[in-house]
Amino acid sequence: MADQGENIREIRALMRLMDEPDPAVYQEVAHRILTVGPPAVPFLENTWDGSSDSLVQERIDDLLRQIRFQAVHTGFGQWVASGCKDLLGGCLLLARMGNPSLSEEDVHFEIGRIRKDVWLEINENLTALEQVRVFNHVFYELHGFSGNMEDVHAPENFFIDWVLDHRKGNSISLSILYMLVAQGLDLPVAGVSLPEHFLLAYLGRAGEGEAAGGEEPQVLFYINAYSKGSVYSRQEVSDFLLRLGHEPGPEYLAPGNNRALMQHLLDDLVAAYIQAGSPDYTAQAVALRALLAGE
């Protein structure tokens, strides 16, 4: 208890130095607050509320962002070390960059609600295409999801809680949500990274799909989650790649794992933050991308 009391006294003392005019002295103050970490958050928030000094508020905003990102960075490193197995877990960690007070329970509940509504309408006797049509009806018509056509490059599009709240997203965030719901229903849907876009692949048993040769997964067809679940053949996706100047090989047509999906997402998020003129958040996204790359 004595140690805790000393820590509280130190934090309070540091709060009184938030308006320190000497930059060198303030850097020492900031370093100490960052070392304290999450226990300093309520004191920083109270100091912000009680101050009308814009410099103090700006400094506190920066410290809060750094402290919260430390937790995201640590958690994301653990997620990568675990093999990137829990895709939703990785998405929730990333979403905390945009929403530190994110409720994971709310996200799980909402995904579960969508999954239940699809489950009530679908059955295993349907063909793959019929299953997707039913899924699309529930996902897009009943639950109202759509591509964010007005502000597709906004960083918030990449955060799963924002997509669930606003019923809008970009090609990769909608694909991730679609895939999480589908996989929860044992539908064989996986992500496919394309240049400038992201699709889903509906997988079939060996010899059932359009792929041939090698160990490439058998793809029955592709799904565009950004375009209300439109279905495309392998040839149509190949033609799209050729129009972009890319040879339609397995590196584009075959589904990737969670690490590859997150790599695509972080690449696009970095670009979105750069376009938004947010250097601090750009640096955070770059740091997460480096963890994923093992740098």
Give a verbal description of the structure.
It is a single chain. The protein is an alpha+beta fold. The protein has 2 domains: about 1-80, no CATH class; about 85-290, no CATH class. The protein contains 13 helices and 6 strands. The chain has helices spanning about 1-15, 25-35, 40-50, 55-80, 85-95, 105-120, 130-140, 160-165, 170-185, 235-245, 250-255, 260-275, 280-290, and strands spanning about 145, 170, 190-195, 195-205, 220-225, 230. It has a 4-stranded antiparallel sheet with strand order 3-4-5-6. Strand 5 (about 220-225) and strand 6 form a beta hairpin. The protein is elongated and about 65 Å long. Residues about 205-215 have low confidence and may be disordered.
